[in-house]
UniProtKB/TrEMBL annotation:
The chain crosses the membrane at residues 7-25, 31-49, 61-81, 96-116. It comes from Anaerotruncus massiliensis. Keywords: Membrane, Transmembrane, Transmembrane helix. It comes from the Bacteria. InterPro entries: CmpB_TMEM229 (IPR010540). Signal peptide: none annotated. This is ABC-transporter type IV. Pfam families: ABC_trans_CmpB.
Length: 138
């Protein structure tokens, strides 16, 4: 039950955070991006946990791959399957089905620089029991 609460909190932070970033970047967002942001942040959170001891460069590269994969899957469902047209990268160089492109993969890498330390700080906060002792996260 503790893991479920932890993961729900992480998803909520990712959902709100990504929606805010998108509003700042594009001027608007879509409700599906809140879901996608929550899933993406949870996967980044877990990636950071699994990569303890690795360099920030390695973690950002892994984070970029994870977020690009989330964007591709979400795009295939949201844009292609449901035909909602939330985003379209088909005019971007190197795009795959208009859902992902190298430019945004590079931006995901850069976004990981501040987000991964946020993930660690959130984990530290969430993994403190009421008594102040650490709760296992793995």
């Amino acid at each position: 039950m503790e893991k479920l609460k932890e993961y729900a909190a992480v998803c909520t932070v990712g959902s709100v955070g990504y929606s805010a970033i998108e509003v700042l970047w594009r001027g608007f967002t879509h409700w599906t991006m809140a879901l996608t942001g929550g899933v993406g942040f949870l996967l980044l959170y877990l990636t950071d946990l699994r990569m303890t001891g690795r360099s920030m460069l390695q973690k950002c590269a892994a984070g970029s791959l994870v977020l690009t994969a989330v964007e591709f899957v979400a795009g295939c469902i949201i844009n292609r399957g449901c035909r909602l047209g939330v985003w379209d990268y088909s005019r971007r160089k190197g795009n795959l089905l208009g859902q992902i492109c190298p430019l945004y993969s590079a931006l995901w890498f850069l976004l990981c620089i501040p987000v991964l330390p946020l993930s660690r700080a959130l984990r530290e906060r969430l993994c403190q029991g009421g008594s102040g002792r650490r709760i296992e996260t793995a």
